[in-house]
Amino acid sequence: MLVVGADGYRTLLSYGELSPSFGNTGVLLATSQDGKPLSRPRLVAPHDVKGGRYVSDVVEIDVIHPPSAR
């Protein structure tokens, strides 16, 4: 899954890390903070140590399929 912010920042999440039967590391698509609505959603990956995959002002979420390995 590719998540894109309004500023062009992009991050990639794999099915394996999100799958409950494999990695089981959830992510959140926040629509509010401290009880106040956000103007655009924010992707939050609470299990990431550095927060490099937090995406503010999410404008696009694409489910992509990589090409098959041959």
What does this structure look like?
With 70 residues, this protein is mainly β. The chain has one domain. Helices cover 6% and strands 39% of the residues. The strands form two sheets. A three-stranded antiparallel beta sheet has the order 2-1-5, with no helix packed on it. It starts with a strand and ends in an 8-residue tail after the last strand. The model has no long low-confidence stretch (mean pLDDT 91).
Strand order of the largest sheet: 2-1-5
Mean pLDDT: 91
Note the overall shape: globular
**What is the terminal separation in angstroms?**
22 Å
Structural class: mainly beta
Number of helices: 1
Task: Tally the beta strands.
Answer: 5
Cα-atom radius of gyration: 13 Å
Question: How many separate structural domains?
Answer: 1
* Main beta sheet: 3 strands, antiparallel
The residue ranges in which pLDDT falls below 50 over 5 or more consecutive positions are none
The residue fraction in helices comes out at under 10%
Classify the beta-strand content into a percent band. 35-45%
Order of helices and strands: EEHEEE
